[in-house]
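Email to the structure team, subject: ATP synthase subunit c model.

Hi all, the expression group asked for a predicted structure before they design truncation constructs. Nothing fancy, just the tokens so they can compare against earlier work. One-line instruction: predict ATP synthase subunit c, return tokens.
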Amino acid sequence: MSKIAKLCLYSFAAILICAAPAMAAEGDAPHVMIDLTRYFGIGLTVIGASYGIGKLAGSALEGMARQPEVAGNIQTAMIIAAALIEGFTFFALFLCMS
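Reply from the structure team: attached below.
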């Protein structure tokens, strides 16, 4: 099992263990139940964006190391792509929070 899968599994188990007492509380008030879907969405969005930007930067640095003469073009394309990923991330976070 990969490190990322283990980390996700352990994080999910920890969240369920910590949330169990709150979900077991008696009462009909809407604040008793915890809405975890919003927070899972935020977490997945941030993890996906950071993974994507990391892969983008790693590939760009590898390309610059292999062909230093086109480093300026690669860097410009990398910055534009990272900005688009960040814009989509903020949009997804906005949707998760609303």
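The chain has a mean pLDDT of 82. The chain has three helices and no strands. Ping us if the truncation boundaries need rechecking.
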